[in-house]
Model the fold of this input.
Amino acid sequence: MGSSNDSPIVQMNQDIFGDEYIEYLEKEHMYELLEHKELSVTVISLYIRFLYEKVVCTRKLSNKYSFLSPHKMSMWKLDPENVKNYIVDMFLGNKESDKLFLAPYNSGAHWVLFAINAVSEVIYYLDPVHGDYTNHPGIKTMLDTALKVYRAQRGAKVSKQKSNNITWISIKCPRQTNNIDCGYYILRFMKEIVEKNKTIIPETYFANSSPSYSEEDLMELKEEWCQYVLDMKII
Done:
């Protein structure tokens, strides 16, 4: 399977991110992992495909977890209205389930994770440098608006006190120790959230974890990604 420029292609089914599209796998994506470089949107997206197939589907957790496209999330500044509509459509397509939507976002130089419970109107913020969600006022406003539009379209009733307030919670999570690891930490956060099989994330969710992930913790992610891609027999 190859593209016009002979790059292997990976079919991303609609069930994963709500849209069907193709990821083109380049040598550089492999080098990101082998040489421990910053992770691209494509590498993040393919790991989510792995999580979706091997954990969410295998353990029948699709009623608890969905993923928002890192490509779409990271384009919100260029086309905020389209990204907002995409998120609302994802919420509406899953409105029968009280689930978490895991949404990796790259601000341009750093990966963070939003975990959104659209029914409870709670957004959990996980940042491997322990920054605050108020550092991202634009995307915060966009996500708040998406939840309010979703609320209106599904006819949900909330108290006057709640009507203008979405609950944001910063989660205490392991902290990266360099300028490279944010993408790896986001992958690890998503993996642990799904494996714990809960749709509520307490502030002390990672209390039993070390202050930072070990080299072995990150190597496990690399091995999973590489083995998954090799098993697809596209390279």
Observations:
- The mean pLDDT is 91.
- The longest strand covers residues 100-106.
- The CA atoms of residues 34 and 222 lie 8 Å apart.
